[in-house]
């Protein structure tokens, strides 16, 4: 323990060097705005700015890129809350309750909750990273295809209850998402499947951000236009204000969300350390579990503070967690850390167990910089809240076209394919109609995120187990996760049967 503290103290000396400190502040600020731009996200931000790092020493370079990653995790919540457009896939779950809070004139509460929860998630995850790196890296190493599929099934199980009391609508929504996630080329045979009308644009599959921005950006805009028309053209988004008194009151209210933040932090970190899982499944799972453990689950989707705190804590914790397998095993835990890994190799730093002994200054300087980046990211985020609130005070006649243009940019940016832009507009109309018909949108979004992760894991597992599903119950980690997933999945069904049985005697007495 004393050795770790001593090494960390040396790391802080590296992190607080004037050049490195400046790189952290610049990286966090850039990351904040990169994360807030729909369609960009941390992956594109780090990739675009990677060439700039050749102007500074390797340690400063990786600190700069890690700060951008951290800032982007904070920034993703901004457009989700303010405009209803997920800045990145990691911020989709924040839209579920962040956007309703903004529409109720409480955007400052949602932004404060996102910033503080991100700080809590980042702090807990960096502490876990500092003191428990070797054993956690071992856990990540034993996770194979069966464990990955069990984890994806657990994520689906947490979302079964997200559609309210209508379980069938939720299941239908999940099935639609799974069908859309299967569009493209078969992962094993390479054969095209579900290529609608032989349109070649479907060959590369349906990009998740296209669906998310369509449903939550364009769909939300159409819904708001209708609501504004009903309200006689009066914008519902101009009531947002920010004062010191309100900020203190928001922070007091956030104390009640400590369970959601703690749960999101630990869950996000452990999902983040698993290779190829990343922050998106972690944030979605955290949202689902937060609803299940909440005393007021009916408030979720209407503006629950826990619904913002849990996924934001999870995605920030996962961003730190994904660096653990990268540094200790040389296996990237997310797309962004894959780019960071490439950068390290370019600078002659070979990731793996020997990195901690041969380049201790670099490793502990990076770990210390995460503490510093976490502090500056929350300070910069909170400082800019009045600027973000000013966006909501714009007349909706000006805001709606801006949202639409940002949606188009966000849909085009990931693949540079105009096909995706048309697809996104169609998804926007479908999202609007689903909302009109009271179909839950969150399970469909979850399915299209997790479908491409769950399918290869399932098929690889069945190949390993000669087609037998026993493979999921013959390994300790996968067996325990599968059992938890099945219990959670059938819990709403048992609850429904129990409620009906309870009502029968009451009806007979009446």
Strand percentage lies at under 5%
Helical content (DSSP H or I, runs of 4+) = over 70%
Counting helices, strands and paired strands, the structural category is mainly alpha
> Would you report the number of β strands?
2
Count of discrete alpha- or pi-helical segments spanning 4 or more residues: 22
Instruction: Identify the strand order in the major beta sheet.
Output: 1-2
H/E topology pattern: HHHHHHHHEEHHHHHHHHHHHHHH
From the N-terminal CA to the C-terminal CA, the straight-line distance is: 67 Å
Describe the main β-sheet briefly: 2 strands, antiparallel
Runs in which pLDDT lies below 50 for 5 or more consecutive residues are 234-238
Rg value: 23 Å
Task: State the domain count.
Answer: 1
Broad shape: globular
Q: What is the residue-mean pLDDT, rounded to a whole number? A: 80
Architecture overview:
The protein is mainly α and 510 residues long. The chain has one domain. 73% of the residues lie in helices and 1% in strands. The chain is built from 22 helices and 2 strands. It has helices at 2-15, 18-36, 41-49, 58-82, 92-103, 107-142, 145-159, 167-181, 208-230, 244-254, 258-272, 279-293, 306-321, 323-329, 335-346, 355-358, 360-383, 385-392, 396-412, 418-436, 442-464, 476-509, and strands at residues 184-185, 192-193. Strands 1-2 form a two-stranded antiparallel ribbon. Strand 1 (184-185) and strand 2 form a beta hairpin. The longest helix has 36 residues, at 107-142. It is globular, with a radius of gyration of 23 Å. The termini are far apart. Residues 234-238 have low confidence and may be disordered.
């Amino acid at each position: 323990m004393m050795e770790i503290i001593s090494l960390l103290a040396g790391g802080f000396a590296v992190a607080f060097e004037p050049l490195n400190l400046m790189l952290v502040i610049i990286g966090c600020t850039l990351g904040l705005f990169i994360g807030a731009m729909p369609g960009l996200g941390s992956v594109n931000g780090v990739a675009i700015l990677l060439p700039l790092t050749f102007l500074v020493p390797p340690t400063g370079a990786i600190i700069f890129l890690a700060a951008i990653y951290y800032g982007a995790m904070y920034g993703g919540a901004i457009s989700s809350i303010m405009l209803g457009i997920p800045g990145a896939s990691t911020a989709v779950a924040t839209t579920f309750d962040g956007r309703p809070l903004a529409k109720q004139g409480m955007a400052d509460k949602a932004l404060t909750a996102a910033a503080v929860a991100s700080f809590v998630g980042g702090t807990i995850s960096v502490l876990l990273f500092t003191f428990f790196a070797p054993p956690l890296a071992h856990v990540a190493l034993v996770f194979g295809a069966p464990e990955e599929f069990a984890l994806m099934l657990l994520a689906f199980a947490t979302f079964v209850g997200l559609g309210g009391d209508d379980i069938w609508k939720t299941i239908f929504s999940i099935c639609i998402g799974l069908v859309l996630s299967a569009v493209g080329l078969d992962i094993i045979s390479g054969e095209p499947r579900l290529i609608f009308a032989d349109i070649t644009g479907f060959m590369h599959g349906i990009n998740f951000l296209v669906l998310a921005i369509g449903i939550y950006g364009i769909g939300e805009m159409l819904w708001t236009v209708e609501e504004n028309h009903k309200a006689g053209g009066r914008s519902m988004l101009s009531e947002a204000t920010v004062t010191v008194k309100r900020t203190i009151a928001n922070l007091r209210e956030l104390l009640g969300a400590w369970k959601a933040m703690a749960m999101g932090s630990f869950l996000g970190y452990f999902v983040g350390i698993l290779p190829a899982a990343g922050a998106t499944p972690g944030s979605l799972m955290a949202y689902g579990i937060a609803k299940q453990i909440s005393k007021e689950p009916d408030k979720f989707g209407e503006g629950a503070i826990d619904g913002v705190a849990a996924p934001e804590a999870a995605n920030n914790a996962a961003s730190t967690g994904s660096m653990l397998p990268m540094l200790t095993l040389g296996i990237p835990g997310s797309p962004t850390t894959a780019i960071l890994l490439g950068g390290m190799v370019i600078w002659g730093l070979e990731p793996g167990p020997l990195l901690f002994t041969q380049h201790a200054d670099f490793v502990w300087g990076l770990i210390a910089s995460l503490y510093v980046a976490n502090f500056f990211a929350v300070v910069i985020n909170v400082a800019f809240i009045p600027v973000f609130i000013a966006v909501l005070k714009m007349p909706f006649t000006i805001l709606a076209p801006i949202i639409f243009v940002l949606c188009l940019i966000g849909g085009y940016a990931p693949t540079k394919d105009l096909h995706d832009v048309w697809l996104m507009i169609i998804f926007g109309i479908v999202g609007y109609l689903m909302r009109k018909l009271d179909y839950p949108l969150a399970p469909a979004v979850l399915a299209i995120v997790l479908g491409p992760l769950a399918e290869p894991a399932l098929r690889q597992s069945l190949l390993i187990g000669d087609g037998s599903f026993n493979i999921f119950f013959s390994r300790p980690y996968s067996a325990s996760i599968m059992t938890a997933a099945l219990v959670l999945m059938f819990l709403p069904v048992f609850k429904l049967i129990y409620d009906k049985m309870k009502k029968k005697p009451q009806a007979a007495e009446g």
